[in-house]
């Protein structure tokens, strides 16, 4: 399905990650918008590419979320898939919440993309501007201009990995430092190392450290700035339904909503199962663990790195540093969206995030999902359940 440059589309989804891909399926499969009038704009050649890269870099074995959080329409589709001849041989679940293995989730996601030909709706390119045009919108992209009645912004955080200041300086000085979520980082292509330090204290850091230690036992250190915070989920399950969301929606002060979101997130946390595995591997001396703040870093004469710490040991040396320090908290999108916010007069709260209505409408014909929908959907907005929650709201989009 080639890009339509001049005819009017019904929907352009900007961003083809988990959110954009699921919502293209919802728009065409459940809400019956014609497939040839929906496009998903994303710089990557295939659906879910950043998700695939990031989760492969981490080396996660099981999803953190439950079996009803996936890309298909029916919440029980993944469970049913597990009972088919194709799915049965791969299906593996972990308790609590019957969480699918990452491999099984991936297989199911690829089947959904293939079965519903979701890749055919993609346009490979990057949005660079957004303008109103009569009743609709013009989306300027690196693949030409798209005319559409409606735009859905499905921009995740994957393009803004968080690089602490000392790590930027180290990188600029040519030090061997990478971020787990950098676009060009491939964990499985790392050359051999003598001592690797993984920096971070959350689930991705612990899983990445375990994966590297599995490859080279006894050569990896996890360096965290806090002791392990053990939580099954990244926020309490009450945030997925009325238990907490009812009060959240009654709160009309968006600064307070932001405070509630920040307070609800178990940032830098690890589920008990991953923590148990971590403890076991540390006690077998296959992995070292230190809790300290990094106060500075220098590149040594032989290209290695020395990290200065505020606790004992006061220094660590390594020939590989891998950051698992999450994402920058600022509104995703970057310069082109900042300019659109300005020129279109789009309303934002003090935190910079969109002020949207119940249907996730930011302006006539302009909708959001993922982190951009946080002030309406709450702390789980950026997770897979957030895409599923967004789909219910978008059903009422004009
Ligand atoms: C390692 C890891 C494990 C996770 N595990 C779970 C889990 O088990 N369960 C769960 O519910 N959640 C999980 N999450 C959280 C969340 O579900 C994922 O981060 C998910 O990938 C978010 O999807 P997204 O589509 O919002 O964002 P992204 O994956 O960031 O996709 C957005 C896409 O938009 C594109 N884009 C950006 N700017 C433009 C532009 N200008 N024009 C066009 N395209 C653009 C990007 O290149 C990208 O392809 C996990 C996250 C990570 C990082």
What does this molecule look like?
The chain starts with 7 loop residues before the first strand and ends with a helix. It is 31% helix and 22% strand. It is an alpha/beta fold. The longest helix is centred in the N-terminal third of the chain and has 14 residues, at 102-115. The strands form 5 sheets. Strands 1, 2, 5, 6, 7, 8, 19 and 20 form an 8-stranded mixed β-sheet that branches. The protein folds into 2 domains: 8-159 and 329-394, FAD/NAD(P)-binding domain (3-Layer(bba) Sandwich); 165-231 and 266-323, FAD/NAD(P)-binding domain, CATH 3.50.50.60. It has helices at 18-30, 49-58, 77-82, 85-88, 102-115, 165-172, 203-215, 242-250, 254-264, 272-283, 335-344, 374-377, 384-394; strands spanning 8-14, 38-42, 93-94, 99-100, 122-124, 127-133, 136-141, 144-153, 177-179, 196-199, 220-224, 229-230, 269-270, 288-291, 294-299, 305-309, 315-318, 320-323, 361-363, 366-368. It binds flavin-adenine dinucleotide. Flavin-adenine dinucleotide (FAD) binds next to α1, β2, α2 and α13.
